[in-house]
Amino acid sequence: MKRGAAEVCTVTLCTGLSTDYYSPSLKRQKLPNGGKDSRVTDYSDPFAFTNLLQCLDTGKYGSVTKEVHALIARQMQLSNALFLLYPELENDPGPEDAEAKSVAPATDHVFIIDSDEEDDAKTPPVYQFQGISFPRPTVELITDHLLVDRGKESNVVKAEAEEVHKAKDKGVYVGVEDELSDEDPESSAEDDGLSDIWKEMNFALETSKEAPVDRSSDDSEEDEGCDHSFVLKDDIGYVCRVCGVIQRAIETIFDFQYIKAARIRSSRPGSRYDRELENSEGNLDGLKLSGHDLAVTEISPHPRHKKQMKPHQLEGFNFLLSNLITENPGGCILAHAPGSGKTFMIISFMQSFLAHYPDARPLVVLPKGILPTWKREFQRWQVEDISLLDFYSMKAENRHQQSEVLKQWVDKKSILFLGYKQFSTIVSGDRTCKMTAYCREVLLKCPTILILDEGHNPRNDDTDMLNTLAAVQTPRKVVLSGTLYQNHVKEVFTILNLVRPKFLKIDTSRAIKKRILSRVAFNGFKKNMKGNAESNFYDLVEHTLQQDADFKRKEAVIKDLREMTSRVLHYYRGDFLDDLPGLLDFTVLLQLRPQQKRDVQELKRTEKAIFRKSSVGCAVYTHPTLKQFLDKKVGLEKNSLPSDSRVDELIETIDYRDGVKAKFFYNVLSLCESTGEKLLVFSQYLLPLKFLERLAVCRKGYRVGREIFMITGDTSAEQRETSMEKFNTSDDARVFFGSIKACGEGISLVGASRVIILDVHLNPSVSRQAIGRAFRPGQDKKVYVYRLVAADSPEEKDHLTCFKKEQIAKRWFEWNEYSGKQDFDLEDVDPKDSGDRFLESELLANDIHSLHTR
């Protein structure tokens, strides 16, 4: 058919694009066989594709899709097919033809159907394409090209070509109708005769699109023939606007953040809790359990908190981020000195954490006695109203009530507080009880972050406390401790294994462990080696730090230990305490009285058990008459305390000066009274505290609750708070007695400036915690500490053992390149030149056997 004097050449495009994506140059044609509509490009318009591409580049038709990419490829196929049909253009190109050839890379095959009815060999019609003139191809040339180009793969195309020859012989028109054909009845009749041919043609087109074509030989020609002009398409990547080659795929250009699906196990493999969790279901009674995988994001302290944070607290906050908010989160330890603001720092972190991850569920496990302190601090520093849940204030005494609290914790943004003993009791409880099993599942699976305040408590292997905490599935476990080193090196590594399972088997730890083993001396230690390799390693390190005479070797081992733990353990020794008025820490060896010396000799001869020797000795060193209150078989720790009246009767009949420690206490109390200072007295046993309390009542006339206060393990939280408040603020308060374990955590007694520690605790960190009750922020006086030790007694040996333990902690955590051996030893002091006017007075100096400072 003819449209005026112009010849029309069309190509069928099967791109599947919607009408909105097409240029106005695209025409809608009805197939001769009455099939579905397809899109055709009118090449009488030389700028059809150019206009379309420009529209797409400017975003007129939306995002470039894969279908448009196919459309671009079809344009290239058309250009390439024209050159395949006319090789003379390639052999002898003119200036314009050469330019056309440069933009026509080799592509897949297309069918070009002539729309002419007659051939004119002398003056072939001319076809215009983008300003270039091409001779109109004949049917014979089309047929030959199809047969040669497709070869063995195109039996269907070959049959189609034969049909084209037959149609030519009969003078039948072969081509594509334009829009005017719908109005021509004669052409409609011809369409009916060509319907089978068109069906075969369409089938051949679809087959040619899907047939694999070896393009390897054309790549170099394509690269040489196309001066690529790459543009960025948001669905594809960098694509050449001319030939369609993709230089860089979109997935290699943009980085996407995905929430990690991997879950890091925190429980010890093979433990009974671990096996139970593997067999349990993820949901309990429709309760949605909290996930542990969080997208990494930026977290910073709230501006209100940041203004109050000291440098070491900001450093600790960032240390938490580096371990907890990362692609591979893990636990960590904050070993900051008592009173350095660990509670405030972790509260600030949790509030920022919950602000970014509202579905997170923090669990805080802590000693029961310091729960009120935590709640009070939360109320002081909260910037968002977050529910604080615990079983104590909510009166959840049985498992059913506790399960309701746990459901409330999981259902809404909140923080759950549990005591250590309470947590381990639930998790290791009766497995046949359905409610206990439910509570255990929630406690082990729901926490997103686990905070362990005074986290040195679960330091002993094979205990329910340690095993239950290790079974909590979250990898985000944070240990807070002011006195991380307690008794042995092994205990520190037990805590490290809690927050980072199999710590010594991590690649970095393994290499440093080998280095340490290559440094230490095994002489005198091999006979003590027993158990597994890890236990031997712990003992060998401890032996080196305590017994090795080579200080350089100690120094090298210390460096290695600090390097091994630097990423997991953040230590702060309390430089802020330098801003306080000061601390003088004395070890006072007292000369025993004659009766006490005789009792000590009997104690050495008859008592073999270490604990009983310590408990009986503490009573005897205070005053020898206290032996009558001791059960000879059971010991002091199992005895109930005598009544006040019975102790008062005893005090009326004895001379308190017969007990050297009782005399020292009474004289210090008298001196404090004269200077207006307050006194703290700590002991690990209650009988000596009871005796000294009644001594102050009988000889000084003090009253309990006014001048005298006491805290023991049986004291309620309300009584603790009231006693602390009155002692710190009342001018009448004189002396505060405390069980050293009950007053070791969460207690502030800054009203006192003098501290007496009656006996030697086998764990040196307990004594340091007691000193920290007075020497902490808020103290406005210089603090004097008296650690009382009975000279020439088993207590003196215990003191030396504890001091060696204390040395390990100092060397491990506080050593620096300027430290020398003298920095970790006791310093002898002349009582007459001690810097303490109390010790220089005759009341105290006469009983001192020797005096040392730390």
Question: What's the layout of helices and strands?
Answer:
Blueprint lengths: L11 E2 L12 E4 L8 E4 L6 H10 L8 H20 L1 H5 L3 H7 L24 E4 L2 E4 L3 H12 L4 H15 L15 H26 L8 H7 L4 E4 L3 E4 L5 E4 L22 H8 L23 H6 L2 H14 L7 E5 L5 H15 L5 E5 L4 H11 L5 E4 L8 H13 L2 E6 H8 L6 H12 L3 E5 L10 H7 L6 E5 L7 H11 L7 H13 L13 H15 L3 H15 L3 E4 L10 E8 L3 H13 L3 H13 L21 H10 L6 H16 L3 E5 L2 H15 L7 E4 L5 H13 L5 E5 L14 E4 L6 H8 L11 E8 L3 H21 L12 E2 L13 H4 L2 E6 L1
Parallel strand pairs: 9-14, 9-15, 10-12, 10-13, 11-12, 13-14, 16-21, 17-19, 17-20, 18-19, 20-21
Antiparallel strand pairs: 1-3, 2-3, 4-5, 6-7, 7-8, 16-23, 22-23
Helix pairs in contact: 5-6, 6-7, 11-12, 12-13, 14-16, 15-17, 19-21, 22-23, 24-26
Brief account:
By secondary structure, the protein is of the alpha/beta class. The chain has 30 helices and 23 strands.
Please tell me about this protein's structure.
With 854 residues, the protein is α/β, with parallel strands linked by helices. It has 3 domains: 12-214, no CATH class; 272-499, 3-Layer(aba) Sandwich (Rossmann fold), CATH 3.40.50.10810; 580-793 and 832-853, 3-Layer(aba) Sandwich (Rossmann fold), CATH 3.40.50.300. The protein has 30 helices and 23 strands. The strands form 5 sheets. An 8-stranded mixed β-sheet has the order 18-19-17-20-21-16-23-22, with helices on both faces. Strands 11-12-10-13-14-9-15 form a 7-stranded parallel β-sheet, with helices on both faces. Strand 18 (708-711), helix 27 and strand 19 (735-739) form a beta-alpha-beta unit. Helix 11 (311-324) crosses helix 12, helix 19 runs antiparallel to helix 21 (551-565) and helix 22 packs antiparallel against helix 23 (610-622). Mean pLDDT is 75; it is low at 1-39, 88-154, 167-191, 209-224, 254-270, 277-283 and 633-638.
